[in-house]
Specification:
Strand content: 15-25%
CATH topology of the largest domain: TIM Barrel
Radius of gyration: 29 Å
CATH class of the largest domain: Alpha Beta
Number of strands: 30
Number of domains: 2
Amino acid sequence: MRVACLGGGPAGLYFAILMKKANPAHDITVIDRNAADNTFGWGIVFSDKTMDGFREADEQVVNEIEANFHHWDDIDVFFKDRKITSGGHGFCGMARLKLLQIFQKRAAELGVQMLWEQEITDPDIYAKEYDLVVGADGAFSTTRAKHEAHFNPRIDLRTNRFIWLGTKKKLDAFTFAFKETEWGWFNLHAYRFNEEMSTFIVETSETTWLKAGIDKFEAAQSLAFCENLFADLLDGNKLISNARHLRGSAMWIKFNRVLCERWHKNNIVLIGDAAHTAHFAIGSGTKLAMEDAISLAKVLNSSDGTVPERLARYQAEREIEALKLQSAARNRMTWFEDVERYVHMEPEQLAFSLLTSSQRVGHANQKLRDPKYVENVDTWFAQQCGLPAKPIPPMFTPFKLRGMTLINRVVVSPMCMYSATDGLPADFHFQHYTARGLGGAALVMTEMTCISSDARITHGCAGIWNDEQMHSWKRIVDFVHANSGAKMALQIGHAGRKGSTKLAWEGIDQPLANGNWPLIAPSALPYITGTSQVPREMTRADMDKVKTDFVAAAQRAEQAGFDMIEFHAAHGYLLSSFISPLTNQRNDEYGGSLENRCRYPLEVFHAMRAVWPAEKPMSVRISAHDWVEGGTTPNDAAAVSLLFKEAGADIIHVSSGQVSKDEKPVYGRMFQVPFSDKIRNELRVPTITVGNIFEADHVNTIIAAGRADLCALARPHLADPAWTLHAAAEQGYADLAWPKQYMGGKVQLERNLERAGQLALNA
């Protein structure tokens, strides 16, 4: 096979090596516009785990790389004149130029031809001459640009500025530092990569960069500015630039986030940064490129299929793994871009928030890496919650809202059961809610409980529009209060245009075959066009009636003994429909601007708050993202949350979606947590987060990092009503009370878990 590798960086060279090693008969040429010794940037980083994979591909290269590595385990975070250190990370760094030299030497030994200082203008020229063209030409790939319509890249030029420098200061650990100036905050990403040098990347927002006047700096001024800024870490050492192709303030560049829909076209394929980039905050760009090279070489050297077929298999094999790492890199990238959101934190929490910002590493993993560090974090967090100075899993710390104190941070999420008759919660509901009340969670939230019979989603939805329903709820609440430490919250709502449908298991969101009741909404827009019933646009009289019903529901909730009520303004139900521009197209004072769209929900909230006891909290559930172009955005959600905070909301329950059937959510573990993080840390308002949270580690990480104050779990509590009790036992936390009737089970579970742990250690 004749192969042209367009680009002589790590991706192109490493692929050429592996192809030639697999079959010396391959005719492989590497072509690059730069000189062989010309590279941008200083050091690169690999994890110990990554090196194990490279060794399998080519041990000779790995041996040479390891001979030039600087290895370290610690991460240092400098913030507010403090240094927080965590260990056990297992990093190795080396000079990027040295890596390229190793690759060049190995490629030459294997017979790879390398052509330097050759401008590449049109990959199609090579595609006619060679069997395979590998676009390894970086984030600004000429190969990708030539066939942009086919590769369909999503290119996101980020707003932060950064400058990539080097220094002879020998850093002891991977170093993050944060400096406040009169213009704003600057971030440092730095690490030692050999015996003499360290990488030194300084980053800041575009706003701060402009305020500081850096856009008018010459190169020497930028270096002097950064030297002065981080003088305490540099100890008199100078900063050095090797960006010979950049002049003046152009040394401060922006990160180009690239993700291609397609990675191949006929006999042309993209690898490395040409196909996907990963932000430097996670240090995995070179890792991704080399792993692409391993996968592509392996697929191409199989005899199965044509070249285009093998290229398709390559993308299928690599795409998910690349996407996972890109997602982690995006999470950490946005953390740094939003760093001013976190600078109110104490050093302990900011450091933990940073270390877990990728969502690949959590509380449990950090504990495996450095038990003492996590013990210090847990002890500090416990103290902030008014507990004695000892390590307690963050999820088991108390939390107070007005006069209500929760024994831990776990919430049973609202889940519609569709099992009521005429709105009456009966035996099923008693069993369901009391079982979860006994299961260790601090707060049990009811399903959306409707304010009137025509406010229901289905004929199976629970209600609180009459005294019989109230007394049935009271029976549940009284039992939970008498037999556990859990509190009870009633979620109160109106289905709006999403009402009068079949039970979920009979056809979710599908209208009833007969017996439908009339629907109301802010605007006469059906939920599913051509399927759903068209609602009537609400009149002032409708609004007054609904408000009265909400107030009556709040009064009955108090009579039933609930500790908290939740105002349901999410998921496209009535009040949510007022807030979203997708569903509110009114021309009166209740439509148009965000403030106008929130006007009626706020009227209802104020009326409920007025009758709800002052010592008891109220939460508001919102959809923080409609996941539809033109719909509610996270920035809108922050503005909505602020309005409710000012109206007296004690906590914001942050969910997303279900407003429009056109939504295209991006799912994943804890996928809605960033919305909660934004609202909590920008507005300083407590939040409940929800959405694919299913492990104790998720809860501990979210709470300790300050991304939310409470975590609501739905499906885990369907599978296991005692999820929280079991989570405590699994973590060796014995202080969470079990029902006295179940103490024998607690003792046995703890004993069995202890034995299993001992067996694992001795295995």
